[in-house]
Amino acid sequence: MKKRKELSFILTICFSLIVAIACQTKTVESEETSNSAKPASTPAKVKNSEPLKITAVGDIMIGSTSINDSYLPPNDGADILKEVTPILTKGDITFGNLEGPMLEGGKTTKCPPGSTRCFAFRQPTRYGKLLKDAGFDVMSLANNHAGDFGDYGRESTRKTLDALGIKHAGSDKESFSTTYLESKGKTIAFIGFAHNNLVPNVNDLAFAKQLVTEANKKADIVVVSFHGGAEGTDAQHVPQRTETFGSEARGNLPLFARTVIDAGADLVLGHGPHVLRGMEVYKDRLIAYSMGNFTTYGMFSLKMETALTAIFEINIAADGKFINGQLYAGRQEGKGGPTLDKSNAAISKIRALSNADFGTNAPKISDDGKFSAQ
After folding, report:
1. Do the beta carbons of residue 166 and residue 137 sit within 8 Å?
2. Which helix (H) or strand (E) holds 348?
3. What is the average pLDDT across 151-180?
4. Cα–Cα distance for residue pair 316/313, rounded to 1 Å
């Protein structure tokens, strides 16, 4: 009798164990079935930590038909950017300021009949391909010549660049102020400013901060381009005040540049004075106050300082901080078009202006054009 009770007890224990194992197995199967029904979790996007190389130049007006075809370059411009193309194409993103619209036909009301002190530019649309072949990825359309042929000219410029896959910024205050590019796993915003009310205005600091703040929400790096400052050989230095040219207020450019960096911009690229100006490093961000003329054929006065140009190659960390850069000195001879200059006169000029205007905030620039923070 005792043995029968012990046997019964053992059988009860075994049965309990079998039931427990079965239940546990069912639970595991149920969890596996449930998990397989859910989509796999998406890992967080990993940002590329490589530096970004931005190559930038100043004013570009390859040739104009606004007067007659004598203001177009030889060989219809096919060779005008040939010497500098190997440098321009090295950048992850290459930028320039398109000084004047690209269109066929159209009319301008900018210049009175017989005027000799007024200039309206009209670049042939076929010259857009010259920019594409030279490596340009994004152009600023915010300047005082982009509207020379009115809304038709501005719209034609946008369509021409869009068809070539070249981005553009600053064509219009409302709809085309900011553009976005992708490079090395990063989103880069470009915002264009000038000194008229068709586009974002360098004098409107509140709106500038607003545009930078909005771009920062979408982009990893924000680049601000401005067309501002007085013009000519007397305008090589950067004053700490609002500049005027004629009756136009053309910005307190140090205040503007530092304001947009305070708002989140990572690089500021200036153009407009038709001469080179100095550079400044502010809060680990680079400001180039004027990159001068670059390709300005036929209708520009090119001599002494206005003939000097440079290609600015700028390396930026993934967090937007300025790392270092390289200046390539150039010069425009005759009617215009960039050639490399072994004398490095542009490098010496930028270094002297940077040190004079910004002191210890100026980047350190070597004789061969390499530059970095002090």
Report:
1. yes
2. helix 345-358
3. 96
4. 10
**Residue 61, strand partner residues:** 296
Asked if the model's pLDDT at residue 371 lies above 60, the reply is yes
pLDDT of res. 261? 98
Tell me the domain boundaries of the chain: 52-372
Percentage of residues in the chain having pLDDT higher than 90:
79
Q: What SS3 state is found at 154?
A: helix
Kindly state the tokens that stand for 67: 């007067």
Asked whether the predicted pLDDT for residue 41 surpasses 60, the reply is no
φ/ψ (deg, to 5) at 30: -65, -40
Burial (Cβ within 10 Å: 0-12, 13-18, ≥19) of residue 368: exposed
Cβ within 8 Å of residue 354, ≥6 positions away: 278, 279, 280, 362, 363, 365
Give the residue carrying structure tokens 């190659």. Answer: 313
What are residue 95's DSSP bridge partners? 56, 138
- Alpha-carbon gap, residue 348 to 182, rounded angstroms: 34
What are the tens digits of pLDDT across the range 185-218? Answer: 999 999 999 999 999 999 999 999 999 999 999 9
The pairing of strands 364-365 and 293-296 is unpaired
Q: What is the pTM for the complete model shown?
A: 0.87
Q: For residue 14, how many C-alpha atoms fall within 13 Å in the half-sphere facing its CB?
A: 6
219-232: per-residue pLDDT in tens? 999 999 999 999 99
Residue 289 CA from chain centroid, whole number = 14
pLDDT of residue 250: 98
Provide the 3-class DSSP secondary structure of residue 329: strand
Amino acid at 166: I
Task: Report the b/e string of 290-323 with b at 16+ CB within 10 A.
Answer: bbbbbbbbbbbebeebbbbbbbbbbbbebebbbe
Could you please state the CATH topology (level 3) that the domain comprising 52-372 is classified under.
Answer: Purple Acid Phosphatase; chain A, domain 2 (3.60.21)
Helix (H) or strand (E) run with residue 128 in it:
helix 128-134
Of 191, 228, 201, give the one whose Cα is nearest residue 58: 228
Task: Tell me, rounded to whole angstroms, the distance of Cα 229 from its chain centroid.
Answer: 19
Better-predicted residue by pLDDT, 4 or 213: 213
Res 34: pLDDT: 35
- In angstroms, rounded to a whole number, what is the distance separating the alpha carbons of residues 251 and 241? 8
